[in-house]
Sequence to fold (308 residues):
Amino acid sequence: MLVGSGTHDDAGVFTLTPEMALVQTIDFFTPVVDDARLFGQIAATNSLSDIYAMGGVPLTALNLLAVPQGGLNSDTVSNMLAGGQAVMSEARTSVIGGHTIDDPEPKMGYAVTGMVHPDHVWRNDTAQPGDALYLSKAIGTGVLIKAIKDGVVDEEGYQAATAMMTTSNRAARDAISKAVVDPSACTDVTGFGLLGHLWEMAAGSGVAMLIRQKDVPLLSGASALAAANRFPSGSRRNWAFVQPHLSAVGSTGPQQWLLADAVTSGGLLFTVPQSSKGAIRHAFDQAHLPLWEIGEVLDGPAGIRLVP
Fold:
């Protein structure tokens, strides 16, 4: 076993041969949008992301589906599965089975298996002091999803959130590989929020993460929803968890709390040496992919330092 649960990494990695290792992950959640096909697409995109965050290539998937017996019509369930299948097919990942249960609240996701070379496993506990810190997708889906469920989101915010959640991290993985082969460290941003995943990276690596709040990208409408304190309960728990590990310049408030906002199908969060910054920027520009340099890695002790 190369990677287990000890560092809260994105997936487990198990060696098969000196040239090949197995990458395994699982993720599922309740609907984040009303559109059944779109929900299936988001669930599949999110489930594949952990394989990409480890530097791997997804191969097969098992569907996990929970639906209330008699509570959803067959067309709705079919559309959920069709949305997921479309994403898996585009990723050249074979859905080879699954399991369905009766549950009062719908849920969907996948267990995904992929491959990676044992010498090129991307981990979240290997960041080095002096590294530059990058993020490949904007944050803010937590407050936007709650606004969608509450019926108060505008069209621009809805489109921004759904476009982000259905954007695969495969292209970002490919750009990183092209630029540096392996980043110093990598993870993807999901339910623990940006600060939660930064803390896992900092704690595992024994380093401090300096984050420039002005450089963190936000989805359209997220800032206004944060100012109105429309955070879901998961985001509030994230902030409570990470606050003891955070030192901030100036007072904290809703815009800082947004950094702990729970994310669905977020971007890659990774570090590279300062000498690789030009190559990373060039690779992402060549692929027409967004990328934000949001901070840097400092000597420990482990923690997060937030500056304006």
Summary: The two ends are 41 Å apart (CA to CA). Residues 12-120 form a domain with the 60s Ribosomal Protein L30; Chain: A; fold (CATH 3.30.1330.10). The mean pLDDT is 96. The first strand starts at residue 12 and ends at 17.
